[in-house]
Amino acid sequence: MNADGYPASSTEFTARNWHIKNVYLANVVDLLPDNDSEYNEIDAALSVLNDALQPSDAISPAAAANRINELIPLEDGQDVSEVDGFFWGLWEGFTDVAGRLPHDHPSQEKLVQVIEELNRLPVAPIAKGMKTHVWAELRYLGPSIREAWIGPESEKEVEESGSHWVGLNAFAARLLNAGLGHFTTSFPLWSMRDALEMEKPPGPLLDCHVAAAAVWIAYSGSVLFRNISNEELNDRDSKSTAGGPLYNGRLGLSSERWRFWIMRFRKLSNQLGREVQQAALDAAENMERLMLESMPGPLGQSGQ
Q1: What is the dihedral of CA 215, 221, 225, 227, to 10 degrees?
Q2: How far apart are the first and last CA of the chain?
Q3: 152 CB contacts (<8 Å, ≥6 apart)?
Q4: Dihedral of the CA atoms 111, 116, 118, 120 (nearest 10)?
């Protein structure tokens, strides 16, 4: 672990960057410019976020949300485009912080809580021509995550950004679980495809992608299961949810694909490092449990 309290890079995706508890983000303001004259509203908002992520609870998520809201640059007669830069920069900062945090880090949940509180803020016009509620729609959060959605493709990239990839997946999964991730519906399919529907040799790259897939079940498995649909997809959705070379079944989030993922989590577990192996087995077990609970009759809770 480095001096800032972040996971140290490693050529192996092991417990050092998979399970790290009780380590808090030392400072978000290291993202800010060295020149004080360049300090702006986005930097101030990230500084507020930094305070909200600390273990001291010096500022609550609700208070942090209100302070961030007050930092939206307001000028008489300004156009929407003049405000958009604030939201782009803000969500890029949130996304970057999410990737710096291990998936089970306490501040991951605090990060989502701040977004929940922003989402609850009352409607207020903030710019000429802006008729939508920017916090209700979380303006540009989805595109910011999509822009950062680049998983590692080699062991060298795992060493450089593997932890960031798992942290980002956990963040998106937590958003989906909180009802804030309407824009993340394709993300879990892409992560599952990369981990479970494509052939990868045992090693850090496989471990990293399986770990990223497993956090979707850990933090939003119930939501994903409730969204299973076996309806036919249109051409656009079929293309965006295309399967990997190992999967030839119904596309989208289908029950057939769900069962295939269970099988793959179990099969791959024998090829994984110890920590990721347990995550894969836990994912398979939780997915099977969700299926069992949905069954009618004495074997499932729906029959009680």
Answers
A1: -80
A2: 49
A3: 158, 160, 161, 162, 165, 205, 208, 209
A4: -170
List, for residues 257-292, the tens digit of each pLDDT value.
Answer: 999 999 999 999 999 999 999 999 999 999 999 999
For 140, half-sphere exposure in the C-beta direction (CA atoms, 13 angstrom radius) is 15
Give 81's pLDDT tier (boundaries 50, 70, 90). Answer: low
Q: Classify residue 170 as left (phi > 0), alpha (psi -120 to 50) or beta.
A: alpha
Is residue 1 within 8 Å of residue 23, measured between CB atoms?
yes
The pTM is what? Answer: 0.84
φ/ψ of 149, rounded to 5, equals -80, 70
Q: In DSSP terms, which residues pair with 128 in a beta bridge? A: 79
Residue 40 three-state SS:
coil
Burial of residue 57 (number of CB atoms within 10 Å: 0-12, 13-18, 19+): exposed
